[in-house]
Amino acid sequence: MTRSNWFILGMAVLAAGLGGFVEHRQHQPDTSLVGQTLPAISLPDLEGKTHALSDYRGHRGHRVLLNFWASWCGPCLDEMPALNRAQAKFGGGTGSSPGAIVIGIAMDDPTLARAFLAAHPLNYPILLGDLNEPSTTLQLGDATTVLPYSVLVGADGHVLAVHTGPLSEEEMAAWLKPNSKP
Which fold has domain 32-176? Predict the structure, then answer.
């Protein structure tokens, strides 16, 4: 190989590596929200009643797992049975060990979300996210708008963690177990 061929090959390898790095960084959540107070956001449920996200924590002492999903998102649908199990396992806190709560936020057409949930009932509350810019996920740090996207909120209302992509059952347990570090 000539010197110019080696140069071209070296530049191609460098460009591929840089492209991979940029692609990887684009799928990382915006962690600047971690440690901040959850923004004041209110969303409707499936019947149209509005709920402030802050209503789900605080005086009840709950950690809240906000999980953003859509009916057309395969990984979201694959994650839902594990979220159901996590809600069943960690949602019934008693005494000094308050439970956690999973809140599903559908980033979808409300009609599609309702139809999906009619066929696949869940044991945790579902709210309808705002799709208008800035969308609910964008307001909560999902700069890439990749679903599923999850946000863990502590009982004090501060964001403890964010995650892009499906959470494993082990990650959910670590997030929802009282007094654990996510």
Answer: Glutaredoxin (3.40.30)
